[in-house]
Amino acid sequence: MPTLYDLTIPAYRNGLRALSSQLGKALDWGEQNGVGELQFIAARLAPDMFPLAAQVRFSCAQAIQTAVRLGASDAPDLGEDAADFAGLQAQIAATLAWLDAIDPATFDDDEDRAVGFDLPNGMAFDMTATTYVRDWAQPQFYFHLVAAYAVMRHMGVPLGKADYVNYMIPYLRPGTAPSA
């Protein structure tokens, strides 16, 4: 049976590495198509949604918060939203380096232990560690990851599903890739 570590940290590393690659593609595409970094940084899907810079920071923060709530320590401080692509990549790199350094043993196997947390709006939640991972941590992480992807798509970056799940390529059965 997978542990809480197995259900979270490898997935967060995969998602953040894919996000880093998507940002690289967005930067290259923007340079070729007259879309500047500041346009991307401030881009959002709707007026009441956070911009790309916040979606990237939130993706990192969700991975960090989950690991801390499950037992990790010495989390990096991401600061505020990044002002450029170098800053976005630095946030992702700091998060990945920290995630890579987590000893799986820090996530004890007590899946029924209590996890509680408060949101800035005053809402408070109490649940088991398993419920937390399933019903909060994973959905929150993927929400912000998808929002960042969608902002870049909305801006015109030619991203596809292969960019979102690029970590799956090593598992591709030989001879089954679609031909161009």
From TrEMBL:
Gene3D superfamilies: dinb family like domain
Pfam families: DUF1993
Name the UniProt record assigns to this protein: DUF1993 domain-containing protein
Organism: Sphingopyxis lindanitolerans
